[in-house]
Amino acid sequence: MTENNTETFYYNTVEQAGQAEFKDRGSRFIAYVYPLADVADFKEKLAALKKEHPKAVHHCFAYRLGLDSNTFRVSDDGEPSGTAGKPILGQIDSKKITNVLIVVVRYFGGTLLGVPGLINAYKTVAALALQVIPTVAKPVQLNYHIQFDYTQMNEVMRVIKHFDCTVHRQETQLFCSIDAGIPKNRLNEVLFRLKELRGVECTVI
To answer: Quick count: other Cβ atoms within 10 Å of Cβ 156?
Structure first.
């Protein structure tokens, strides 16, 4: 498989959370890394960390979602502009990973670090946190809506499991439907197998 195909069919991310700590002139920087599903997931995780660290002076973050390079957000949360969120995002991008969130909690130690000191601290602690978590390659999936008769449930599920598709939503009645993510590199095989089953309809979501 060529490098281009690898980039097309797989993306790098993290599957587990992790953390690391960095200290500079009394200030404590604690970085938390999380796998991220969507923006709602981000809001929940940030709210939980703010609750866990109510006395921290800053909760800076960066996240990247999806494969188009356009879905990301950074926040300096009161630190001088560009000293926290961008250095954190820079570490995410240097690892070439997506669907990941890093929040850095800062406890102020009484000494101002200056712009270079802050950039170094946020960059360093984000890098340290990413070092403790393995990066994993996951298949790019395309979302399809699959409709079929209840009597075909076992056959449809057999195809879905065989090709490691991800079920996002499932309705089981007389007529059933499943929203599933199909690995891009197996798409033609999956659609062929499903369409072999009489009456099964597949449409792109």
So the answer is: 20
Residues 83 and 132 in one domain: yes
Question: What's the one-letter identity of residue 112?
Answer: L
Nearest alpha carbon to residue 200 among 157, 154, 149: 149
Q: What would the pLDDT profile of 74-86 be if each residue is shown by its tens digit? A: 999 999 999 999 9
CATH code (residue 174): 3.30.70.240
Domain boundary among 108, 137, 166: 137
Could you tell me the pTM of the whole model? 0.84
Q: 97-149, pLDDT tens digit by residue?
A: 999 999 999 999 999 999 999 999 999 999 999 999 999 999 999 999 999 99
Count of alpha carbons within 13 angstroms of residue 76, beta-carbon side = 12
Q: Strand pairing of 166-171 and 175-183? A: antiparallel
Structural domain that includes position 173: 140-204
Tokens at 60, concatenated: 């800076």
Provide the token pair at 58. 């800053």
